[in-house]
């Protein structure tokens, strides 16, 4: 791994100040309102039979027979984005990140904590169904190719609800490892609220992880699955990171030595230090290092010191003015101050990487430590600097950007109106009871009119280039489509800043 040039505290502080000054107007945001709306978004993504407590009333029941053709109940769960397919890989990651936010910042969720747990449980109830057959994980419901050729409401959809699975003959350590992580992390969240449910989650997590480890392979490497999961959610980075990720969450949830030993034994073989500037539904490396670093920073386990070094390197790669100076040129900042990585749906990087900045700053604050960004002992960044960078990203999303537009639907006075989302863009069933067929929806897709249903709390993909430009158009799905895994890490950020709006003030939040 290439070493980063030493950076003095003054340089680090100046770099952060430069980022904060990128926006000429800073608004006082209502983070509590944004949190409420960010959680509400998940109700708009629900599949299955909706509960009486459903607050987003323009949605109705959908996909009530999912799994029937395979002899299993796979109703429920979430549609991942603006389509009507249920993809298990990003759904499990979504559950893991909602859990992490609740574990580390649960006290700051306030009145929204029960709603956040409900959002999590909608995913974990489905994951329990998807892992109910020993030696099998059901990883997708719906034919993505056929689904994407239609523009129809989930309540109307008539495209095939094909069921896809991984098993011993067709391994998928990536999606199985992420499912194990999600179940384990959620078990911590429900430990006090519902001990019986928590125990069930943890037991299933251990079973699924054992399956993932015993039958190794990437799920998109299987010929029977490749065409179904690609190009939407191919595994581009291998399954090894999900095995470490699953073990890390199982260790945190169970405190069993077997998982600690597994992590240390497989640290090199499974590439813990690789691609550390990545974190998302496909690549868990940076998350692994930050998560495990808590053990070191809390003085619980010097055994994992190498993970702390990896985490420091990752954090330094995100600090503006440092990241582009020779360490990770993939990390850039737009003129308006938005963290930017090449690819589609940039906000998924913004929210997930910002969450890691905040989580790590919390661990550092507890330990009275700083981030080392070079060889010299004096080259360090403080926890407050990390919080400021994370808060700047949240504020950009909420409207502190060159366009003065919130990228969260329903927050502020200006936000995207033509998001790439079938249910939002088509008239609701109550407004238009007659069925809208597969191709009939094209007229709504191509209309310049705003979406008739407000998907409150949805955060779209956002600017896809370094000019801070954003076309509010359904057809530009790379920028206008919301996803569950954009919102999931944002919940913890919004909860924290709702309670601690001043990032310079030290605020140590306890976890599990």
TrEMBL record:
Position of the signal peptide:
1-28
**Entry coiled-coil feature ranges:** none
SUPFAM superfamilies attached here?
Six-hairpin glycosidases
Q: Which UniProt keywords apply?
A: Carbohydrate metabolism, Cellulose degradation, Glycosidase, Hydrolase, Polysaccharide degradation, Signal
Can you tell me which residues form the catalytic site? 420, 472, 481
Q: Which Gene3D superfamilies match?
A: 1.50.10.10
Q: What InterPro entries does this protein map onto?
A: 6-hairpin_glycosidase_sf, 6hp_glycosidase-like_sf, Glyco_hydro_9, Glyco_hydro_9_Asp/Glu_AS, Glyco_hydro_9_His_AS
- Enzyme Commission identifier(s): 3.2.1.4
Q: Molecular function (GO) terms listed?
A: cellulase activity
Per UniProt, the enzyme's principal EC class comes to hydrolase
Family classification: Belongs to the glycosyl hydrolase 9 (cellulase E) family.
Fetch the PANTHER family from UniProt: ENDO-1,4-BETA-GLUCANASE
This protein's name: Endoglucanase
Q: Which organism is it from?
A: Urochloa decumbens
């Amino acid at each position: 791994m290439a070493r980063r040039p030493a950076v003095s505290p003054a340089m680090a502080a100046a770099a952060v100040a430069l980022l904060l000054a990128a926006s000429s107007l800073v608004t006082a945001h209502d983070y509590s309102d944004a949190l409420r709306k960010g959680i509400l978004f998940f109700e708009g993504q629900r599949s299955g039979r909706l509960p009486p407590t459903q607050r987003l009333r323009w949605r109705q029941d959908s996909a009530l027979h999912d799994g029937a053709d395979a002899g299993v109940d796979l109703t429920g769960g979430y549609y991942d984005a603006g389509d009507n397919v249920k993809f298990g890989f990003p759904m499990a990651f979504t559950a893991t990140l909602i859990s992490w936010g609740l574990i580390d910042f649960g006290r700051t969720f306030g009145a929204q904590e029960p709603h956040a747990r409900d959002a999590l449980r909608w995913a974990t109830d489905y994951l329990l169904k998807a892992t109910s057959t020993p030696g099998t994980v059901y990883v997708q419901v719906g034919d993505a190719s056929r689904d994407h050729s239609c523009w129809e409401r989930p309540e109307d959809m008539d495209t095939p609800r094909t069921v896809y699975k991984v098993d011993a003959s067709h391994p998928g350590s990536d999606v199985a490892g992420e499912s194990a992580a999600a179940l384990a992390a959620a078990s911590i969240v429900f430990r006090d609220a519902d001990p019986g449910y928590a125990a069930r989650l943890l037991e299933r997590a251990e079973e699924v992880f054992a399956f993932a480890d015993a039958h190794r392979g990437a799920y998109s490497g299987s010929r029977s699955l490749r065409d179904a999961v690609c190009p939407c959610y191919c595994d581009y980075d291998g399954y090894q990171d999900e095995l470490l990720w699953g073990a890390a969450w199982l260790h945190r949830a169970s405190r069993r030595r077997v998982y600690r030993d597994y992590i240390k034994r497989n640290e090199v073989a499974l590439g813990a230090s690789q691609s550390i500037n990545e974190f998302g539904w496909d690549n868990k490396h940076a998350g692994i290092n930050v998560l495990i670093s808590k053990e070191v920073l809390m003085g619980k386990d010097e055994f994992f010191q190498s993970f702390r070094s990896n985490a420091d390197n990752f954090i330094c790669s995100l600090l503006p003015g440092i990241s582009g100076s020779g360490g990770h040129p993939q990390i850039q900042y737009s003129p308006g101050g938005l963290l930017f990585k090449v690819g589609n749906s940039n906000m998924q990087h913004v929210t997930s990487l910002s969450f890691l900045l905040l989580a790590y700053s919390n661990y550092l604050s507890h330990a009275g430590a700083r981030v080392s960004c070079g060889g010299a002992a004096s080259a360090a960044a403080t926890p407050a600097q990390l919080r400021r960078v994370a808060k700047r990203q949240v504020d950009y999303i909420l409207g502190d950007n060159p366009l003065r537009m919130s990228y969260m639907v329903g927050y502020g006075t200006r936000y995207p109106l033509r998001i790439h989302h079938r249910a939002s863009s088509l008239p609701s069933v109550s407004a238009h009871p007659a069925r809208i067929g597969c191709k009939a929806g094209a007229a709504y897709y191509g209309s310049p009119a705003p979406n008739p249903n407000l998907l409150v709390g949805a955060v779209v993909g956002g600017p896809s280039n370094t000019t801070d430009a954003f076309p509010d158009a359904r057809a530009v799905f790379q920028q206008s489509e919301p996803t569950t895994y954009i919102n999931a890490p944002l919940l913890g950020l919004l909860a924290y800043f709702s309670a601690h709006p001043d990032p310079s003030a030290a605020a140590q939040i306890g976890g599990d």
